[in-house]
UniProtKB/TrEMBL annotation:
One of its GO terms (biological process) is homophilic cell adhesion via plasma membrane adhesion molecules. It comes from Leptotrombidium deliense. This is Neurotrimin-like protein. One of its GO terms (cellular component) is plasma membrane. Keywords: Immunoglobulin domain, Repeat, Signal. SUPFAM superfamilies: Fibronectin type III, Immunoglobulin. One of its GO terms (molecular function) is axon guidance receptor activity. Residues 319-418 form the Fibronectin type-III domain. CDD domains: FN3, Ig. Pfam families: I-set (PF07679), Ig_3 (PF13927). Transmembrane segments: none annotated. Residues 40-128, 137-224, 227-317 form the Ig-like domain. Residues 1-21 form the signal peptide.
Length: 447
């Protein structure tokens, strides 16, 4: 028997009971049905009612001039009759009637629905409430295990499907870093196009809807790519009868096979008393015992995996390091400049070459003998004389028995009170503006 049939049966019983009661009270030998003359109206207005799961909710249904009519409660999502008057049809013990109101204890997510309160007039009248049951956020990840592996250049696609009432919002973050520039940080999907090594890492999506505690899910993203090599320095200075360490940082997915070659022989270097190979995470080292001048050469760090190969070279040399000029950029002297510099050399410096010039003149070159120092750090001072006020550029190179240091970047300095060409134009424009304003004021006062 379906719900509607049960409802009709109870309504029949209710009407019969009402007739019998009236017959007894009036003393009549036969039941006489007296038609209702009143017209019920609703005092309660339809509304949306929001409740948290587990709480108790009351759905009101106040009716004016109800008697002798019945109130029927119906759940709309399955058209199920819950109550007809005081007669309970549902077997769910959480539902009960208080007067004409429907009460639901320990509300569950499945209770969310429209509920209709109907009065059995002809035709029936009714109002409908919408019951909204809130629930805390929950997230399902795609892929479910949160593990993502993509090839370099492809698109990373992470998806978090939220559930909960109200519908949760999703926010994305990257642990120990930030999202790539231009990538949208909200929405159910996170898309990173043209993936590179820097995009690998742990990503998190957080769902929140202000109900309970937000839920976070984690993705671990790996980006497959050919090896990438970084060297801290491209030139290393050494000395015979000493050890030197050459370093390269290798990044690869999957892991790479790393080896070293000496350019002059092009042979793969095998660990020995002369060569020691070390590894610490992504850092690979070649320690060389320098025995002779033949050890000064280019050494290459190679790495290969299934995605490709890469290499970077480091020069091992005995020449001095690039000279670093440490002077002040300005001097108040009108004719002299104190030039200071330093370099590193494991062999005695034989001489320095200083080149300088006013920016509008030709180069002047000086050869300077080094002071007596043990090294390997050499620091020098030299006074350049017979200068005129102006802006100058200077460079310094050092020589030892193995050759000349690399050229350094030109260093600029100023002697005396000098106005650069750019500053000169600024002052000219300022003075021109001041003169124009002065003339305008004069004409205004004398017109």
């Amino acid at each position: 028997m379906n719900a509607q049939c049960v409802f009709l049966s109870f309504v029949t019983i209710a009407l019969f009971s009402q007739i019998v009661t009236e017959e007894v009270n009036t003393g009549n030998d036969a039941a006489v049905e007296t038609p209702a003359t009143n017209t019920p109206t609703f005092i309660t207005k339809p509304t949306n009612i929001t409740v948290n799961g587990g709480e108790t909710v009351t759905l009101p249904c106040q009716v004016k001039d109800l008697s002798p009519f019945l109130v029927v409660w119906r759940r709309e999502k399955d058209k199920f009759i819950l109550y007809a008057g005081d007669f309970k049809i549902t077997r769910d013990s959480r539902f009960r009637i208080e007067g004409t109101a429907l009460v639901i204890d320990s509300v569950q997510d499945d209770d969310a629905s429209d509920y209709t309160c109907q009065v059995g007039t002809t035709p029936p009248i009714e109002i409908t409430h919408k019951l909204i049951v809130t629930s805390p956020p929950h997230v399902t990840t795609i892929p479910v295990n949160g593990m993502v592996l993509v090839d370099s250049g492809n698109t990373i696609n992470l998806t978090c499907v939220p559930s909960g009432v109200p519908t949760p919002s999703i926010a994305w973050t990257k642990r120990e870093g930030s999202l790539p520039e231009g990538v949208k940080a909200t929405g159910i999907s996170l898309l990173i196009r043209n993936a590179s090594r820097s995009d690998a890492g742990i990503y998190e999506c957080e769902a929140s809807n202000n109900v309970g505690v937000g839920q976070t899910q984690t993705f671990r993203v790996q980006v497959s790519h050919k090896p990438e090599i970084e060297v801290p320095v491209s030139r290393k200075h050494g000395n015979i009868n000493s050890n030197v360490e050459l370093i390269c940082h290798v990044f690869a997915e999957p892991s790479a096979v790393v080896y070293w070659r000496k350019d002059r022989s092009n042979a793969v270097i095998i660990p020995s008393a002369k060569y020691k190979l070390k590894r610490n995470g992504t850092t690979f080292s070649l320690v060389i015992e320098i025995e002779s001048i033949d050890d000064f050469d280019n050494y290459s760090c190679f790495a290969n995996n299934s995605k490709g190969e890469a290499s970077e070279s480091i020069e091992l040399t005995g020449i001095p390091a690039t000279v670093e000029i440490t002077s002040e950029k300005n001097t108040e002297s009108e004719t002299t400049y104190k030039l200071t510099w330093k370099t590193i050399s494991y062999y005695r410096i034989n001489r320095y070459i200083i080149q300088y010039k006013n920016i509008l003149e030709e180069w002047t070159q000086l050869e300077v003998k080094p002071t007596d120092q043990k090294g390997p750090i050499y620091e020098e001072v030299f006074i350049i004389n017979d200068l005129n006020p102006g802006e100058f550029v200077v460079s310094v190179r050092a020589e030892n028995d193995h050759g000349w240091s690399p050229e350094n970047d030109e260093f600029r300095f100023t002697v005396g009170s000098t106005i650069s060409a750019g500053n000169c134009w600024t002052i000219f424009n300022h003075n021109l503006l001041l003169m124009t304003v002065t003339v305008s004021i004069y004409r205004y006062l004398h017109d």
